[in-house]
Amino acid sequence: MKRIAAEAACSVTAFVAPATGRERSVRFYSAEIEVPLCGHATIATGVVLAGTEGAGVYRLSTAVGVIPVALRRKGALWEASLTSAQPRHEPAPSALVDEALAALGWRRDELSKSIPPTRIFAGSWHLLLATATSERLAALDYDFERLKRAMLADGLTSLQLVWREDAGLYHSRNPFPVGGLVEDPASGSAAAALGGYLRDTGRVNPPARIVIRQGEAMGRPSRLVVEIPQRGGIVVTGTAVPMEAGDRL
Questions:
Q1: Could you report the per-residue pLDDT of 75-123, keeping only the tens digit for each?
Q2: Predicted TM-score (pTM) of this structure
Q3: Does domain 88-233 have CATH number 3.10.310.10?
Q4: For residues 123 and 117, is the Cβ–Cβ distance under 8 A?
Q5: Contacts of 208 (CB under 8 A, 6+ apart)
Q6: Backbone angles phi, psi at 189, to 5 degrees
Q7: How confident is the model over 101-114, as pLDDT tens digits?
Q8: Strand locations in 50-156 (E)
Q9: What CATH fold (topology level) applies to the domain 2-84?
Q10: What are the residues facing 173 on neighbouring strands?
């Protein structure tokens, strides 16, 4: 599976087992590692299943448990909503933050004072770093190998780098060197983890809804709608489209 993922050259490839009704087992691989849960690949898997089997709820068995994905028509596209694993968060160790900032070439005084560095989880662990300005987020140019070593040592899947434009809109970039890529154009698991963090720290009043814009700097814009209920998993909604051979990823 890792070899096929490397040949596919996508950020993450989903491998789907034969069906048992509307239940499937799914594993996720980048070119270098198996990922316990990949949100955008889960959304895409749901869209493919809906295209062949129709609307409804599909239950995808992953390394972090069963993830329900609800499919419905939205114009010419299928829209998928996944419900994440139970989110959680914990303070980021100072040594990890210092090393990540050094690899990014960022200073602590460039971070937002309202969202401190935090390890966040909704199926995979991510380091959340919020910038104080959009310019800092836009100027992403980091030491690939140094950041990769720090992430592997801490068990991180990606960094969730965000700038909060307003209460309902966040901009995100997700370095993914542990998977062999500079940046991920969409990250549903990180989006869910952010939603859970905002709820569990009282930064939103649930039920709430935020939108995350990601991938724009890569020319692969993504829009993730994050529904934050009062308790339980976070719901991330998006669409997907087929890619043809030769399309730029």
A1: 999 999 999 999 999 999 999 999 999 999 999 999 999 999 999 999 9
A2: 0.94
A3: yes
A4: no
A5: 198, 199, 227, 228
A6: -70, -40
A7: 999 999 999 999 99
A8: 56-62, 65-74, 77-83, 88-91, 118-121, 125-130
A9: Diaminopimelate Epimerase; Chain A, domain 1 (3.10.310)
A10: 161
